[in-house]
Design goal:
The chain is an alpha/beta fold. The protein is built from 6 helices and 4 strands; from the N terminus they run E-H-E-H-E-H-H-E-H-H. It has a single domain, classed as Response regulator (Rossmann fold, 3-Layer(aba) Sandwich). It is 34% helix and 14% strand. Helix 2 runs parallel beside helix 3. The chain is globular. The termini are far apart.
């Protein structure tokens, strides 16, 4: 069973995501701030299927350690994991600073076609939007 770690300081957001992932057959772990999330990620090993975290859904604005700071730490410690992160924020994402997570991470600022969490966790999400086929017009 794939596992997701949801890192968000808002209980309602965690609950909604937990419910959705559970219904999709995922195991769910939760953290209420960046430091707790980092501790959980450090204790999870990619080579151990029972402890592996396949996907991380992380708010950018968290107490104690922001999502952006968490991303910077993981980029150095576990680069394969940052490809399996999805960031969320209630802020506007236009005009993000050039080197910020919103500007650089493929699953933050620019919504793309809906992908399943399984595809995201496998790190196989295309960075380019899929071309939509238009049905032929009837005359």
């Amino acid at each position: 069973m794939p596992r997701v770690l949801i890192i968000d300081d808002e209980p309602g957001i965690r609950f909604a995501l937990q419910r959705w992932f559970t219904r999709q057959g995922w195991g769910v772990l939760e953290a209420q701030d960046g430091e707790d999330g980092l501790a959980m990620l450090r204790s999870a090993a990619d080579h151990d299927d029972t402890a592996r975290i396949d996907l991380v859904v992380c708010d950018l604005h968290l107490p104690r350690l922001s999502g952006e700071a968490l991303y910077a730490i993981l980029r150095d410690e576990r680069p394969s994991l940052v490809e399996r992160m999805i960031f969320s924020t209630g802020d506007a994402v236009t005009g993000a600073p050039p080197r910020s997570v919103l500007a650089t991470h493929p699953h933050a600022a620019h919504p793309r076609r809906p992908d399943s969490p399984a595809r995201l966790s496998a790190g196989r999400v295309s960075r380019e939007p899929r071309a939509h086929k238009t049905p032929p017009r009837r005359r």
